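Each letter names a residue; the fold follows as tokens. Both lines appear below:
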Amino acid sequence: MIGILGAGAFGTALAVALTANGPVTLWGRRIDWTGENPRLPGVPLPPGLTVTQDLDRALQADTILLALPAQVLGAFLDDHAARLDGKRLVSTAKGIDLRRLTGPSALIAQGCPDATVAVLTGPSFAADIARGLPTALTLACADPAAAEALQQRLSTPVLRLYRTTDVVGAELGGALKNVIAIAAGTVIGAGLGDSARAAIITRGFAEMTRLAGHLGARPETLTGLSGLGDLTLTCTSGQSRNFRYGCALGSGKDFDSTTTVEGAATARALDRMASRDGLDLPIAAMVARLAEGGISVEKAMDRLLSRPLKEE
């Protein structure tokens, strides 16, 4: 049995997809729906899926996917790490913990030292996965044998997983692309055009690569599904919450405060990391200021465009 902790859109989508391989138990703190998750309208829950608010029931699984937001995962582990230790734990969060300035895999490893830790990330929307549309993801695990076993366990005929041992690189690609997606959305929302968006994506990818290398990631990982692939998707599609949030910032419109936008908190975490380590991450810094309401869109663009000219 596979257990999935977190009954949001993405956790539910994975639960629906993975019933192709056997029984799945999906856990959520508050589940007030039956038949289908309202965040995935038109997607019925398959017979092999058990939805529960009983955490003990989900923890009976030996392989558990942690489909919790990055800013929620740390507190959850503080409360339940001992019960998770020794299992195969796969994080799907795409962010950096704002308080501890670490990625999800490090949080899990600290709390569950005897667990096998992996990361599932890459270009994907919950609705696509839930509807059985072809999707390719990266599965990162430092243990090659465990990575291969998880790859077999979590792949389906339409959900194709590619494995890597570069956990840091895969995890950072998924986290950092959300920040750049907010910037890309801001550009479009402000009416600055597709050429400006292309510039933001390209220079944003340079920031991603620079930070990932500083933190020990392999450069080629960032050119794969978990980096460039996910960046392309989230910077160009209205299905991306981070992109939509950026569009709202750029146009001065309100955004649904109940929707989790991982990139906003991650931008603030990156800004703190840049100050700590002496890194130059101008786009992340501007996104952090925009998300905090500390700068106008016009001023943010002026600051980026007035930076000294240099070689690419």
The chain has two domains: 2-165, 168-306.
